[in-house]
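User: Sequence for DUF2931 family protein below. Tokens please.
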Amino acid sequence: MNKFKLLWLCAVLGLMVGCAKGSNGLPYDAWRLGLGAPDYMEVWIETADAVDVRDRVFRRAMSGVAAINTPKSLKGHTRGWPSYPGWGAGKYVYGAAVPRLIYVRWQSLVEPQTYEAYIVIPEAIQQAMVKPEKAFCAADAKWITGYRKGVTVGLAPGGIAKVWISGPCVSPIEVTRVQGEVVKEGPDGGRSGGNYALPLKPETKAYIEKYGVPYGSW
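Assistant: Structure tokens for DUF2931 family protein:
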């Protein structure tokens, strides 16, 4: 099939299937893995690994500080998850096909405790990640063909991992909620002598002293 016929086929199929751009089978360059946490509930990510549908492993696709807000006003609104979660702090996983498994090991600094979770991405979600969708972008008042190419993992105290897929101007889809397990070796696999990666911010300390940790709300 020549280039012009391929472009015509993509236009005709439109919202039905999309057209892959490269060997990873995606209709875009790469999908993004992002991680966040509820307000004040600080998290350090030891590693976030991805396994794609072709069983290729992408180790440390993301690590470091999760996206979080620590308002100085100490408002007690950290319970639950937002209706439209952001993309989180993250990176694009170049070269990967859609994910089938994500492994996260993280330090919940407010407890403190170290957790790990295995997150299975269902086939229906894999298909949703490559399905084009007409979407209206209010910021510039334009219609686009959007994709849910962002995988966001929310990490909360108690070892909770909540997952969504989303994309620019398209609504998020909730994927799953996973209960992680405590890592018995502690932070950094026991190599840090029980010391956690970062001290708590003063705003976080003040919030915890005033409101505590709302376990069970995530």
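The two ends are 50 Å apart (CA to CA).
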